[in-house]
Request: fold
Amino acid sequence: VSSEPGAGAPASASAAHGGDGAALAERLRAGDRRALARALTRIEDGAEPELRDLVARLHPFTGHAQLVGVTGPPGVGKSTLTSALVRWWRQRDATVGVVAVDPTSPFTGGALLGDRIRMQDHILDRGVFIRSMATRGHLGGLSWATPQALLVMDAAGFDVVVLETVGVGQAEVEVAGVADTTVVAVAPDMGDAVQAAKAGILEAADVFVVNKADREGAGRTVRELRDSQRLGHGPWMPPIVSTVASRGEGIDELAAAIADHRAWLAADDRLRARRLHRARVHVRELAVAALRSRMGAVAEGVALDAVAGQVVDLELDPYAAADTLVAALGG
Amino acid sequence: VSSEPGAGAPASASAAHGGDGAALAERLRAGDRRALARALTRIEDGAEPELRDLVARLHPFTGHAQLVGVTGPPGVGKSTLTSALVRWWRQRDATVGVVAVDPTSPFTGGALLGDRIRMQDHILDRGVFIRSMATRGHLGGLSWATPQALLVMDAAGFDVVVLETVGVGQAEVEVAGVADTTVVAVAPDMGDAVQAAKAGILEAADVFVVNKADREGAGRTVRELRDSQRLGHGPWMPPIVSTVASRGEGIDELAAAIADHRAWLAADDRLRARRLHRARVHVRELAVAALRSRMGAVAEGVALDAVAGQVVDLELDPYAAADTLVAALGG
Reply:
């Protein structure tokens, strides 16, 4: 049995196996947090065809939430920032959902748990829902799971949905970039600004945060970011906000910067362009998953065994063998 | 221009653009280290069609090297272990190539550089070649690049090729598992044994190392590993070796355990079974890359834009949109 999430299941299979989908979708939309948690677990599991059924049921009820991505290297204080933002929005009566995606489970599970504990401030608040998700080691699992999770949270009716990711590479940055507004956090004297520039994170940012701004080197980090912006930016000039999230300093400014970007997006169909981008990423990843799943079926069969044998016997090189497989898929 | 490595380029394009392939392959096989370095850079870049041409030229000269995977969580001392093993093999006149694959560049680049500095012991030894590779943020880049790198190192004529990976998840463990012999390293009191068990690392191990065995808790870690083995193992019972790699302690035993596993593999066609597995992984990843590349072409076109628009307008759910895309590929 393949553990690869795939889009290849026919609709009839959904009807047969996803019999509780209607009830789950209804409870989720009515604010039942256990139903929401169950839906997110389905995404982690990549369980077809139940997930396909659920997504089809929830998708018509999306489009309300403001989606905010928070990314940056490990240790920069992303969870503290997120927690402070959550508090800010709750004081203004907005409901908030948080999805923290961990690309490197299970070995960083411990650290992530520590982050979550810091968010216990909100544990008794019914207007907040926080969930960290692991992607169970699927290659490409992050880009596959993230748009699914945002869709489910959006359909659950939150006013704001925060997507927190560890920005360790370009792939993770792309994932964070599916939000309406992407906040990129760095800290002083970690060489973060330079590293972020190399990783292409700067291009993904709608708002920069220099967190732990009470540390030495904060001014220099702000200057480095400003210098990098002189090299060019798009139609939106990302503001640079300094915060000390652990003491709540700078959070008003950060929330205002996020709201400014949102207002800018709302003009001239820019929000729709963002959402088209997100839809493209989502659909493409589902299609690739379907192809991978189909490839898995071929790979389980005799075709792959035969060509792999020829590769080991030095009769066929790996690329030529791959061509044979692709041809076997009817390509 | 897509940055996705793909297998879809026609052979004629290779001939046109890979004109230096013959010379590069010849120099690489003659022991030219700069040619080897250039070939590995091609793999990092995922540059088609040059890479396809080079792989086809080198593949006939593979099969000599003993491939050893070394994996484990961050901080366990993998580079120190590898360095000590390299010294051991060099004292016995075996030439050794090391490929260290870093799945999370660029933010861990600094730590990796530190590891490399520790390997400077070997810098003047022509019988050793050490290279760390980043996969430039390609999703799935690790499983795509690793068999390519092993093929190139094998063709370069090393007696032993070590593949060092950070074992952060199941995907990375699968990658390490393409070696002939996979060494899984843990350290005392990091909760590593338990975490490794959860991550499925235990099943991938041919040899266990408890490194930093002079630390408190080493005995308990060995017992935990032994207990986990009682729950069942395959036809090969992985030995558990205790080392203090920084002082060279236990390296004789570790090298002997690797040699024992190699001798066991050599009997009953087991080595061929391993190599079939590696060929399957390699060919499958190249085929998936080709499909992804083709999907990229569709995704650049009007098909994805059209369905993404319908998704945003809530007329089509993402799975149904993905079905449309897959159908557009002739599937």
